[in-house]
Amino acid sequence: MEKREDLRSILPYLGVVVEGSSLQWPSPVIEPLKAISKGPGHSGIQSGELLFLAISDLRHSLSLSSQRLSASASHGYALFFDELLSTVESTKWFAEVLPTLANLLLLFPSLLEFHYRNADALIDGVQTGLRILNSQQSGIVFLSQESIGALLTCSFFCLFPTSNRDAKHLPMINFDHLFSCLYETNDEKMENKIKCIIHYFERICSHMPTGLVSFERKVLPLEDVALCVTYPKADSWSKSATPLCHFEVHRSGLIEDQSKEALEVDFANKYLGGGALRRGCVQEEIRFMINPELIAGMLFLPSMADNEAIKVVGPERFSNYTGYASSFRFAGDYVDKRDVDFIGRRKKKIIAIDALCGMRMRQYRLEYLLREINKAFCGFFYQSKCQQYQRLFKGDGPCGAQLDQGIQGSDSISRSNRSVGLQEAPYVSVGTNEGIHGDEQIGNSEEKGGPSLEHQYDVGVVTGNWGCGAFKGDPQIKTTIQWLTASQALRPFISYHTFGVEALKTLDESEPD
Questions:
Q1: Distance separating alpha carbons of residues 183 and 157, to the nearest angstrom
Q2: Which positions are catalytic?
Q3: Cβ–Cβ < 8 Å for 279, 255
Q4: CA dihedral angle for residue 167, residue 168, residue 174, residue 177, rounded to 10 degrees
Q5: 0.70 exceeded by the pTM?
Q6: CB atoms within 10 A of CB 415
Q7: Are 216 and 140 in contact (CB under 8 A)?
Q8: Sequence-distant contacts of 38-41: CB under 8 A, at least 24 apart
Q9: Helical H segments across 120-187, by residue range
Q10: Are 264 and 349 in contact (CB under 8 A)?
Q11: Is the pLDDT of residue 485 over 50?
């Protein structure tokens, strides 16, 4: 076990230790967790104040006391569990949910061992073990929903070491700041963010889900690399003859409520999750609250560079909500009825791409337009379509369309005669699966014999005003960029939610006939 490179990369950030050939909690942690698992009659924990004292004791047992938690965290735990929850809800939490979470923590080392024993055999030729997915290194991690539940329980108990996370450009992962912000702001949106998380824990404690979730770092290499899609230059984009894909405009509804199987765009911060575990409560943060399994990626995914995107497949949604930003409210349980693929992931694909922030007039400069279009392209492209991209970047638009005809159903796409206007030819393909990695290699395995065959090439893009809210991007520019990149990536459609932005009131006039 200790010889695994993937485990060695993540071990300093987990809190567990290797003893011989197995993973374990340090021995001083085990007895307190056993006491908590037996309920308040054994542990004495029946309030938020006492819960935080138990958290502090566990952290001391892990030698984490020197890594200080947020100053107001103790007050936040007490405020939420002792004042904001009803007496009935609080009693149930401490009597039923908290003991089950403690049991899950006791299982955590064995869940990790099982994960690593099976990681190499999950998909032939794909490394899937939990590890730090470093910048500029494409790769994928698969986690069971039970393992994710254990990881998020570690976050709730603030058991993850944090001393070296900044040096690795990793986002925060413990929940101390989340509870601290609740106390410091006394804000209803913070209360309701935590209600989403608490509801998630209640759900998994009553019935543990059994699926898988994958987290993938996608990279557009900055230099030519055989069998990879590389970072297009401005001249390439200006000469493309790729036809524009079908464009749908939605003036109501939400990205996460769409029914098609599609890439659902996360208007991300370069640090995955953004302010999800702080005060943030806009598009990305809300998505992380209603799909809390996304938070697990914050443990091992460092910040994104300009040529990177993060793709998550399979996260389950647990909560309904209303509102946005300050008006955000938890609105009860959500039952996710999405189908699953042949390895147990829900057919929900979320692509995190971070826009430039606060650029004002600079956003119209060529260098920044190029950065944004390549960022979106990194999120939308298929690594397995290198050969088609090579032809398209040479200006061979019709040939590229013909290459796709056997893949895309005639009723699934309506292309216009207008073209993207870009070109480049650094891409290399030998017409095989060599060089394909991550989720697409898994898709190819499925097509070769998985029990639930899925044409991944029917997957379009569902998006909206990426980078146009707090980041102050131009909605018309960002709409155009996403349409161009979805088209160049050979996505069959883009489904665009305007969210009532005035500048986009005539957007449907741009739709293909």
A1: 17
A2: 266, 284-285
A3: no
A4: 50
A5: yes
A6: 20
A7: yes
A8: 38/99, 39/94, 39/95, 39/99, 40/94, 40/95
A9: 145-156, 176-185
A10: yes
A11: yes
Written as one letter, the residue type at 75 is H
Residues listed for the chain:
513
Q: Among residues 261, 251, 254, 330, which one has the least CA distance to residue 289?
A: 330
Q: What whole-number percentage of the chain has pLDDT above 70? A: 85
Q: Which of 74-78, 226-230, 272-276, 495-499 has the lowest mean pLDDT?
A: 226-230
Residue 431 binned pLDDT confidence (cut-offs 50, 70, 90): very low
321 has which bridge partners? 330
Q: What percent of the chain has pLDDT over 90?
A: 70
Instruction: Quickly count: other Cβ atoms within 10 Å of residue 297's Cβ.
Output: 28
DSSP H/E element including 319: strand 319-322
Provide the pairing of β-strand 349-354 with 460-463. Answer: unpaired
Give yes or no for residue 510 having a pLDDT over 70. Answer: no
Longest dimension (CA), the chain: 73
Distance of CA 374 to CAs 48, 217, 220, 308, 356, Å?
47, 15, 8, 9, 12
* pLDDT at residue 453, as a whole number: 33
pLDDT tens digits for range 227-270: 777 888 898 888 888 899 999 999 888 999 988 889 999 999 99
Phi/psi for 131 (5° steps) reads -165, 170
Q: Which two tokens stand for residue 170?
A: 């990793």
